[in-house]
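Action item from last week, closing it out:
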Amino acid sequence: MTPSSPLSSTTIELAPSYKLPIAIAILAILLLLVSPWLGGAIALFGLFLMFQAGTLRLQFTDTALDIYRGENLIRHFPYQDWENWEIFWFNVPILFYFKEVKSIHFLPIIFDPKLLKSCLEQRFPKRTASS
């Protein structure tokens, strides 16, 4: 957990994770042997995810999930608008999904998945069927 500033001790910034982009790059190398076009397309996607992991920052504040590129806030997702969330295949995490009242979002797991799950459970606990 990394506080974003001394004044905001409850803001948590997720560290990047390069596991998914590296796995996609390895898959691309294998696919290059079978299909150069498909392998090349997958390799470009892996490079794109690697770039995103290095440049995007997710911050969990008391009221919202904020996404930054460098110092610029590019998206603000208040928890009050959230309906639910899911991390697909947590043992091999590849995709984070969350639904707001008016939209749904899918993000590749290019951040620390354990800290992501911990922050989600803390900031927006899943509702049980009986809730």
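Closing note: Residues 36-55 form the longest helix (20 residues).
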